[in-house]
Structures are given as C-alpha cells and as structure tokens.
Design a protein that fits this description.
The chain contains six helices and two strands. By secondary structure, it is mainly alpha-helical. Strands 1-2 form a two-stranded antiparallel ribbon. A hairpin with a 2-residue loop joins β1 and β2. It is globular and about 45 Å long. The chain starts with a helix and ends in a 29-residue tail after the last helix.
C-alpha cells in the first residue's frame, strides 16, 4: 500500500505561497501544489476564481466558528473532504466501493480519498498526472 503513496510526484507535495485578497486585505497562504490544484478545481465547479472561493471559505468559516486559527490547515482538510465526497459519489454511481480496505485500514482512511481524475496544472506549469481509483483484486 505504501508504494502507491511514496511514488507520488514530489511536485505534488512541494509547497507554494500565493497571495490572496480577502476583503481587500492581501494575505499569503502556503499550500502544497496538489491542494492549490484541488482548490482551482473546486472553484471551477463553483464557477468562480480560486481567490473568490478562498475568500468565500474564509467568510463562511468565520461566520460559523467566529475565528480561523489555522486557515491553511482548514483549506487542506476542505480539499480532503471534497475528494472524499467525490469518491463517495463515484461509489454510488458504480454501486461498489472505489477503494477496498481491510478493517484496520478503514479507521485510518476516514480522512483519505481517491485522487482526482481531472487534469490541471501546478503553479509551476507542470501537468498533474491523471490517477484512477484503486480496485481490489
């Protein structure tokens, strides 16, 4: 199982800082390239820019929680939850789990998700690999 993860392209987990404007205030956010790609995909799904989506997330978490102690971590978890929701939709559509796990792995996989199948670009301009769901044999 670990081989799948350790063979990930290092560009995916390389961090990149970007400046985002939230209510007229410029702030720098440092996230992994894969997280930036997911945020861009989520923004496209919502019909807005990545900056607009991030500002919307900021407003909504602030309204819900009253504070944002670690916004970068919130964005990472948001991306994992987005991927998990996509995996669950795929499972429903196909009528079977996209990923089969042993009982012990299930608890650890609660926050895990299937990698995206859509293509895009990293901040560096490199193409993101297309990854399909893992199937049990």
């Amino acid at each position: 199982m670990c081989e799948f993860f350790v063979k990930a392209d290092p560009i995916q987990y390389e961090q990149r800082s970007r400046t985002v404007r939230v209510h007229g205030v410029l702030t720098s956010i440092r996230l992994e390239n894969m997280v930036w790609d997911l945020l861009a995909e989520m923004a496209e799904d919502e019909g807005c820019t990545t900056n607009a989506l991030i500002a919307q997330f900021h407003d909504e978490i602030l309204a819900h929680r009253g504070e944002v102690p670690n916004f970068a971590s919130f964005l990472r978890v948001t991306c994992m939850r987005y991927m998990r929701r996509r995996m669950m939709a795929l499972e429903k559509q196909q009528g079977e789990p996209a990923v089969r796990l042993q009982p012990l792995q299930m608890a650890a996989a609660e926050a895990m998700t299937t990698p995206l199948q859509a293509t895009g670009t990293h901040g560096s301009g490199a193409l993101r690999p297309v990854i399909s769901p893992i199937r049990a044999r």
